Structures are given as structure tokens and as C-alpha cells.
Amino acid sequence: MSQRQGADLSYEDGARAVELARESVESFVRHGQREHPGSMRETFYERTGAFVRLESTRGRGSLRGCAGGYRSGEQLGHVIVDAAIEAASEDSCGSEVTPSELSNLTVSVCTVRNVLLTDDPLGDLELGTHGVAVDGGGKTGWLYPTVPVENGWSEREYLDRTCRKAGLPPMAWQDDDVVVTLFEGQVFRERSSDGSIEEL
Length: 200
Fold this sequence. Notes:
The chain is of the alpha+beta class. It contains six helices and seven strands. Strand 6 (179-190) and strand 7 (197-199) form a beta hairpin. Helix 1 crosses helix 2. It is globular, with a radius of gyration of 16 Å.
């Protein structure tokens, strides 16, 4: 099992991470431009992974886009910008976010720390602490650490659903040729009610 540290974000850092993701989505959707992080807080120079998730608040709400990675040699600020743009693009959930949708999106960011390559996913996985990524047969998929808690999943169901997201059979995490990586993550999200930012 391998492990490495990542960035520890204060609430102010986390709030700025979400604001940066929001600005990046809006700049891309409205103008087709890549936002530049500009003068960043010290934490944003750390080289670590991050994920951005966009959820619609319309109707029952739904996942509108998600992108990112748990491994990166890039600075966190740039990783967030790139993940936000990819989440808003047609490559993420099949159709690009449109300008009319922007006011009905909530943005969340998960920054990665303590990546663990595991050969005992069921034994090592801690619900509410670990995000899961699976890689096998050229297919990859991942889910935020908060997702199983929000949905009341067991460890086994969490692993099964991550495999399904990757386009693999639900129990593929048990196969020797499928790599399972656990990562701790800090998750910050806009509240749908007023746009203020909370840490989950």
C-alpha cells in the first residue's frame, strides 16, 4: 500500500477553491475561455489532485458534470480550473453546460490528500473518509468520499457503484487486474439555498 500527503485546506482555502471552480465554469461557458488562477493562496501551489462536481438544482436535481483526478503533477489551482472546464464540457455528461443553466448549478470541489493503493479495498475503505477510484481494462471511474454517506451505501455497494461508473461489472474491484485506489478528500460545496459555501 502506498501513500502520499496532499494539501490541507482551511475553510478560506476551500471557499476560494469553490469560487475558482465557479469562475472557471462561467468563463468557459460564457466566453469559451480558460480562467487563470491569478495570484493564488499558498495552498494552491501544492501539487495534488482535485475533482469538481456540478449539480443541477432544477426539478429533482441531477449530476450535470464531474471531472478531475486523484493524481496530478500540476499545482492545485490549475488542476481545479482544468477539472471545472472539463466538468462543464460535453465530454463529461454528454452535453455542454449552457449559459442559462449557470444560475441553477451548485459547484463542489474535492481536494485530494493521502492516496492509498490498496489490495484489500473492503478492509481498508472507511466510509465518509475515502473516495474510491478504479482502473481496469482501460476504463476508469471515481466517486467522492461524501457520496456513500449521502446515499446510505455500505462499503461493498460503494465499491460496486464505482465500478459501474467506470463501465466495469459491479464486482470488478475484486479482480486481480483491476486497480483500486482510495483517497482522502476535503469537500467544499455551494449551498443551493443561498450560494454560501460549506465544508462537508
